[in-house]
Amino acid sequence: MNHNNFLEKIVIIDYGSQFTQLIARKVRELGVYSEIINSNQIRRLKKNKSIKGIILSGGPLTITNKNSSSLDNRILGQNLPILGICYGHQILAKKFGGRIKVSKTREFGKSFVKSILKSPITKNFFKHRSNQVWMSHQDIVYKIPPDFKKIASSDNSKFAIISNEKKKYYGIQFHPEVSHTINGKILIRNFVLNICKIKKRWNLKRQKAIMISAIKNKVNKDKVICALSGGVDSSVVALLLKRAIGNQLTCIFINTGLLRQNEEQEVLKIFRKKLKLKLIYVDASKLFLKKLNKVTNPESKRKIIGKLFIQLFEKYAKKVRKMKFLAQGTLYPDLIESRSVTGSTSSKIKSHHNVGGLPKKMNLALIEPLNTLFKDEVRRLGLQLPLPKAILLRHPFPGPGLAIRIPGKITKEKIDILKEADFIFINELKKSNLYNKIWQAYAALLPVRTVGVMGDSRTYEYICLLRAVTSEDGMTADFFYFNKTFIQRVSNKIINSVNGINRVVYDVTSKPPSTIELE
What we know:
Structural class: alpha/beta
Oligomer: single chain
Strand content: 15-25%
Distance between the termini: 40 Å
CATH superfamily of the largest domain: Class I glutamine amidotransferase (GATase) domain
Largest sheet: 9 strands, mixed
């Protein structure tokens, strides 16, 4: 039984936006339960007293294309407030007689909208007459439907916000769910709490109980292997499983040889001695390095690592009776970048070793209790379990490890060089009280050698790239601004301490257009 079925909720129709889950997350932050359904699943949407509002997401399609989606009458048949965002805004306008066209000037990135009329949707949104927002579209509404009013506009989007107050239909051309839109949360709060009038009854404490119950029901008397990396995600999964099934859980920690410096010793100490988890340690570092020999394609790296992970898990699962499940710390950003979690038209960005990297045929069934949560939600969940702060506050670390921080060929020499450089960088962040101000930081080793001069001698060594970003959820991110003294000190320490590096550079690109990891 899904206990969330009895909660008042917002249903989000996913038209394929990379930001759809951000909408769900913003709604959950308000203490309101939200569900995402694929636009192809609307036929399964039944009249339900618990549904109090509908949000139409953005998407990669163009409304001016003959094959574009249309707003299903079954959505309108709910007689509920509707909020359309970006593509959802256009599809709503078109349904009621508005006109859409391809704009001569596309809007991608920061823009400003001006207030035209007061509306319940924009209450407290405009601190001044104009407000910074995040646009991402090429089509525009150039004529609004009858009974709709223009609430706000931008230089390129005359109808940036429109409303039909009688029916409680609202269209927003920009993305209020991303952090780049100032006061975007206020628009979502106005719709959810003030217009849909939903009571706050959802929280992570309740969700924890639901997850534990779901795990118990799924596993029954069988046994589970948990893929433990020592990171926040897999650690939270391990503690959830321990709460749910106790000794039916066996954790496996695989040393791929691609971990951070001294990481294997730290993981064994915390999870065996402190948390008393049943833990099998597998040193497969030589095997992983052999399989990755001469592999340069990043997708191939991920798939090789993913396949080898599963093979090793299945090998050790055979040694335990009634072992039927593999648990992973997969999060929603992993899923949405690999494929759409709802089966919509979301663009695939890259495979993740624990998503797109899994082989098609597996002997173990998957358990992924965190696959609709974001990193900050997982950390809050970890506080309730409780998870030691040494693990809870760690920066995200990719499943493939250092393999995707070494573009090109991977060698033992490169791994050792990178481990040293990364350790210096992270240690300096902690010493300067910067570590907890940053979402994720790491060093990477670029596949380029450059000439340097050290002690009057010529060197020809690798470039070390440093990356540090701030983010709320990993879906969008900005680079962290270091002062010159700090970055200079780190550069000097790396070059003076690590043989094999003679140049350090700092990455100042945001996400988008880049991803946080290099590969």
